[in-house]
Please model this.
Amino acid sequence: MKIRESSRLMQLTLALCASALVASCGTAGKSQSSSAGAAPAAQSAAKSTAGMNAQGEVVDSKLVEAGSGKAVKGINDWEGEITGIPAPGSKFAQLQIGMSMRQVTDMIGQPSDQGGHVTGKAWIPWYFGSDKYRHEMVYKGMGRLLFASPSGFDFGSGNLIWIIHNKSEGAYR
Model:
């Protein structure tokens, strides 16, 4: 008798969990589709101005999102992005998308801070392309540079894929 009651309790618990899961999935899909259809222009406008002022200058590099700048094709067909307006006399104005880390540091010097992280592409089993690792360099008073790794895990190199001009950039990430 006790086994039957516990079995029924288990079945009831599983049924409630399954119905809650189905209900939450259905609600999530509806809220995403309704917000996506509501005002895509307003969402894209908010996305493109995050971390930037009305003049197109970057005021907070940490808030700037990919896609908010100008897409460009650079050296050796590397695709990248340039965000913000270069400060007058900035060494960043000399940079080109696709330059190697070595070329950049030879041209404009060592950064005030730098670091990196693994991207989601690193966990794709049969992905042999670039951008498994990203390296970020911060230059005080100039902005930030992001580099994508070549294929493999060569952490000491990479190609420039994003230039963020920010004349008020701090010294640290």
About this structure: Strands lie at 70-73, 79-83, 113-118, 133-139, 143-148, 159-165. DSSP finds three helices and six strands in the chain. Residues 24-48 have pLDDT under 50 and may be disordered. Residues 57 and 99 are 23 Å apart (CA to CA).
